[in-house]
Specification:
Elements (H helix, E strand, L loop, with lengths): L11 E3 L15 E3 L2 E3 L2 E7 L6 E7 L7 E5 L14 H23 L4 E15 L12 E15 L3 H14 L1 H7 L9 E2 L2 E2 L1
Antiparallel strand pairs: 1-6, 2-3, 4-5, 5-6, 7-8, 9-10
Helix pairs in contact: 1-2
């Protein structure tokens, strides 16, 4: 049953292909002595009033398709609340990635597990002038941590389950992105010119 707040257009749809970017290169996966080197490419733009954005995302791994996703913000900060907010995608991506690793590793270790669930809380602090801070104050966003609870039903020895989760956390690239300092860079192209 639809109510007035229900979105009637899809939030995620399969894209025909990843659009060709103008300023980044789309690279193929490659193997190195450390493992498989892969990328997840993302191209996005503002598409409407408020904070509605659309983007196409695709890992460069064979067999992984491109998907168009919508993103918005809540109405309390000027969005229309028609799609998940960026931080919602971040939290969901980390949780889903970790669940993939736990499930995959449990299968490869042939562990007898009847169910795996995850509950996760990401904590943030935000200072937005005019909303959470005085005008003239600089914007500031801070990550305050990730709390994850993995609920497993199994007859396996608890030490095997603990080892499974520990190994899965180490293997989860999304989780490792937020729990470890990683290199990051931003390039600004203004009116076609690199600043």
């Amino acid at each position: 049953m639809l109510d007035n707040n229900t979105v009637t257009h899809p939030i995620v749809t399969r894209a025909a292909a990843m659009p060709t970017p103008r300023h980044i290169s789309l690279n193929k996966t490659r193997k190195s002595k450390e493992g498989m080197e892969l990328e997840v490419d993302f191209i996005a733009e503002l598409t409407g009033d408020g904070f509605v954005k659309t983007g196409v995302v695709q890992p460069n791994v064979p067999g992984f398709g491109a998907f168009e996703v919508l993103c918005d913000e809540g109405s309390s900060i000027g969005g229309t609340d028609t799609a998940p907010a960026p931080l919602s995608y971040l939290a969901a991506g980390i949780g889903f990635c970790l669940l993939t690793h736990v499930h995959g590793l449990a299968q490869s270790r042939r562990l007898n597990i009847s169910s795996i669930k995850l509950e996760q809380k990401m904590k943030f602090q935000s200072r937005i002038p005019g909303m959470t801070a005085e005008q003239g104050t600089e914007m500031l966003g801070v990550s305050k941590g990730v709390e994850t609870v993995i609920i497993i039903e199994s007859q396996e020895d608890p030490s095997l389950i603990a080892s499974l989760v520990e190994a899965s956390e180490k293997a989860c690239m999304a989780l490792q992105t937020v729990v470890n300092a990683i290199p990051a860079s931003t390039t600004i192209i203004n009116n076609g010119q690199k600043l």
